[in-house]
Amino acid sequence: MTITITAFDRSPDGGSGLARDTRVRWALEEAALPYEVRLVPHAAMKAPAHLALNPFGQIPTYEEDGLALFETGAIVLHIARHHPGLLPGDAHAQERAVMWIFAALNTMEPPVLELFTVRILEGDKPWAAERLALVKDRLRTRLQQLSSRLADADWLDGAFSAGDLMMVSVLLRAKPSGILDAFPNLAAYVARGEARPAYQRAFAAQLAVNTAPLPA
Amino acid sequence: MTITITAFDRSPDGGSGLARDTRVRWALEEAALPYEVRLVPHAAMKAPAHLALNPFGQIPTYEEDGLALFETGAIVLHIARHHPGLLPGDAHAQERAVMWIFAALNTMEPPVLELFTVRILEGDKPWAAERLALVKDRLRTRLQQLSSRLADADWLDGAFSAGDLMMVSVLLRAKPSGILDAFPNLAAYVARGEARPAYQRAFAAQLAVNTAPLPA
User: Which residue stretches, if any, does this entry annotate as coiled coil (chains A, B) (predicted)?
Assistant: First the structure.
């Protein structure tokens, strides 16, 4: 079985690990699965061949034996369900791990994405500074709630799971803003995720792509 | 087995079906499962008893035989996996249905939520009108991509699935803005979802809560 994912040939983040292929690489590394990467140049992102794989013209996609998926949540959950290492054995605990994947993507990531909207997409607008304060306030509310739930635990629900993989990945996108510094248990939680050997390998692999010479 | 979900005692939308309990009610109706509803007054939403069920202080939650979940994506997926009616039988088609749940919640819902941010949370700000145009442009891009993928099909991947349930539910939140009118196939897709008897029962049930007298 060959697994092929897609990634940017040059990530907008310069290889700091925030592009979404890192989440999929991390899951594949936790499950000890080999994979191939097809790089998609920016110009090909909205071309028919890539839109056939992902109608929204984004990376990553995932192909394996006639199955083609997009959406990192679906890809990570697929890997987690079919290989050991990312979901607990207990049925209820499994459901809660899936719940944390959704919480990361649908409750935590939207306010994190607003940081990018205000700084990048609307960074030249006269309202940028005032909105940044509002956006940070809304994000802080969510972070405080997550911090209260995590308390002094290592992971969100017992052992490390795909839910933690996704939550740490989303929080990593907020980290450069410095907003996590006010929540020491969340900062330590993210650091625990980053310290996992599987994450380290995933990070190194995406960095290697972004520092390699582009094909002529 | 008793299923209990939570809902607003008075939804901010006045019972127009946009609160997230409607998504769970719809899934339960498609699966022909009876359920009970515990109404959570606004003042109790951030109190310890409800935060124990959902650390972000939101509705709906889902309880069944010792399992407690929040996140509508996780709840709908749980229902779909354990009861017929919401997932196709073919393994790959099942994975794609899950993919569309994530696409609805992580790719389509964030720009839809921006409509609420600009109109409600920041409706009194001097930038509201100018930002509304930007937010609508970004949402139109996503809608155009979805419209192109759906083309003239009835549902996103063959038969109706939990993926359609979630995508229709997210698009329903954009419908009052009128933005769907420019995409006749998406408007018809949403109308097909609304016409399903299970949706009709879910809508009526949430409306009944919102028009009933509050307890003294």
Answer: none
